[in-house]
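Tutorial, part two.
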Amino acid sequence: MSGAGGMGEALLRLVEVDYRYAGRQQGDSGQVSGQVGDQACSQAAGGGLAGCSLALARGSRNVLLGANGSGKTTLLLHAIGLLQPQSGHLEFAGQPLDYGRAGLAALRRRVGLVFQNPDRQLFSASVVEDVSFGPLNLGLDTATVRQRVSDALHAVAMADYAERPVHQLSFGQKKRVCIAGVLAMEPELLLLDEPMAGLDAAMQAELLAVLDGLSARGITVLLSTHDVDFAYRWADAIHLLVAGRCAASFAAVDLPTHAASLQAAGQPLPAVLALQQALVAHGVLAASAEVRSLDALLGALGPGGAPSRGQGG
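Running the prediction step on this input gives:
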């Protein structure tokens, strides 16, 4: 496995983690820690883990890239301690995960998970009530809870909706409220399961702005997706999941050198990379140009789509 963990200190590390949902051999000890919602288990079922190892650098933006059933949701459930490995182990901030009641409570003050479907995560009548739930359960005083809720809602641009009934929100707004609920716990690691699913282009742009802001604050982000174009333009590190195993971890900027790994995983090259390679082959763009998005490619071509000065053409 190629390493992307050299970017900094590892906040989360999986070491040879195995987990199967069905057909377990006698003696398997894997179990669900605490109560996992039906939506999480049904969504993850069939996508177990098989000797999965990876590391997340503190403060980095990470993408779990893989097809449906590759184990992305299962990995996220392990990262927050909702599932316990049948073999292998996880470390958070250099320490093995403690699956006792106190250990899991401590972990979930430092790690937050946003599920794919916000309607299964929101359960209070109003936005402010829902975002307040976690901090109140920590036993924080009223003033601290109010400040955390205010900060979290401002971070996701939902402060003006604090008193709005949850059922009146759009799908994209509900996702942002879910993120606010996690942020109010002041986590070090934010996990998001297919956060762009079900969002139109405008909603995706709004959510991306939120994630960029959180990353700028030093929060480590790990999100799952099957969208290689998004992974390439947004992530610091990409972790490629195939049949429950991390087949490769690499810096997103190095993706062009991992075309074989992507192909083996059934993933296409990012469209912008394929276009860039064609332009280089035709002498329109310098081979040294580093572009990871369409906007960056247009910028490299110069005004009006013409090659920039000093580039081929």
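Residues 5-253 form a domain with the Rossmann fold fold (CATH 3.40.50.300). In part three we will examine how such features are distributed along the chain.
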